[in-house]
Specification:
The chain is α+β, with helices and mostly antiparallel strands and about 110 residues long. Helix content is about 35%, strand content about 25%. The chain has one domain.
Length: about 110
């Protein structure tokens, strides 16, 4: 049985609560996933905890956000045996764009 996923593009929306970010579709009508992107850091002097940025969590959010694009691109690469050589440079540019998005370097 084939199950369809929510079509991309997906977005990372920071601030879904004090420690989380949401992954939403471009329409943004509901959250597809919530990801911890901040951690609590205890300040003993003040006797309280504060939320601090967690780069690994944000990297995870960007990787999840890139999932629809990665799937499309992988399917295209799978079919490359039939792509004429003169079209390959455009495909590789798109590969680099999707990798950058998955790593949080592009939106």
């Amino acid at each position: 049985m084939k199950t369809n996923h929510t079509p991309g593009p997906w977005l990372v929306i920071d601030g879904s609560g004090p420690l989380m970010s949401e992954i939403t579709s471009a329409g943004g009508s509901y959250a597809l996933a919530k990801v911890f992107t901040k951690r609590l850091k205890h300040n003993q002097e003040e006797g309280r905890a504060t939320a601090t940025s967690w780069p690994e969590g944000m990297a995870n959010a960007h990787l999840i956000k890139a999932a629809p694009d990665l799937l499309v691109l992988l399917k295209r690469i799978e079919a490359m045996a039939s792509i004429p050589l003169d079209e390959l440079p455009d495909t590789w540019k798109e590969v680099q764009t999707v990798i950058a998005s998955a790593e949080g370097r592009a939106s």
